[in-house]
From TrEMBL:
The chain crosses the membrane at residues 28-45, 52-70, 76-96, 124-141, 153-173. Keywords: Membrane, Transmembrane, Transmembrane helix. The lineage of its organism: Bacteria, Pseudomonadati, Pseudomonadota, Gammaproteobacteria, Alteromonadales. It comes from the Bacteria. This is DNA gyrase subunit B.
Length: 186
């Protein structure tokens, strides 16, 4: 069961590449059906843990089923928008209700965070929200106005690189600048 969960997660991670491959090499409608089954399987596997991630699964199923029924393969291009809007909603809501999403994630590794870290983690959550706005906007733009290849390049590579740069850059900043500053003050 765990292997199947990991497989469905990995397949959803490469969704843009799967869409490019399917729209390029598979008969019309086959990809939408396969993706719909994949999302349904993911929903069944995660039914015990459904929360904020239920919305993108239901939206993905609706997009794939609608694509199949309406014979509109372009609808498959809108799933990255749904993912970015969901992440924006989750991170944005945490700013309103607290603690911020990045603080929650940070506390998984360091439960006793110093009070002075909280404003920094809140600003970092805002930065992630901005990235989700940019990625969602670019996902919409590439789905509407560019070729399938450009859509795949942005949503299957560039968007992931931007997220990796933000996460890696923040880690470097925290490791090299913030911890160094704390050592000097100690």
């Amino acid at each position: 069961m765990r292997a199947l969960e990991l497989l469905t997660a990995a397949l959803l991670l490469v969704y843009p590449l799967a869409v490019w491959f399917g729209l390029t090499y598979l008969p019309p409608g086959m990809l939408a059906g396969l993706l719909c089954l994949l999302l349904l399987l993911r929903l069944v596997l995660k039914r015990q843990q459904l929360s904020a991630m239920a919305l993108p699964l239901f939206a993905g199923i609706a997009l794939c089923a609608g694509s199949l029924i309406a014979k509109r393969q372009d609808w498959l291009l809108y799933y990255p928008i749904v993912i970015n809007l969901t992440m924006l909603g989750v991170f944005g809501q945490s700013l309103l209700r607290g603690p911020s999403m990045v603080e929650r994630l940070a506390r998984l590794g360091e439960p006793d965070l110093p009070d002075e870290a909280i404003p920094y983690l809140r600003r970092l959550t805002v930065l992630w929200c901005l990235l989700f706005v940019v990625n969602g906007g670019m996902a919409f733009y590439t789905a509407q106005f560019t070729s399938l290849e450009i859509w795949t390049l942005y949503n299957g590579l560039i968007a992931y690189l931007l997220m990796g740069l933000l996460a890696g850059g923040e880690w470097l900043y925290r490791t090299l600048v913030l911890k160094k500053g704390r050592r000097k003050n100690a």
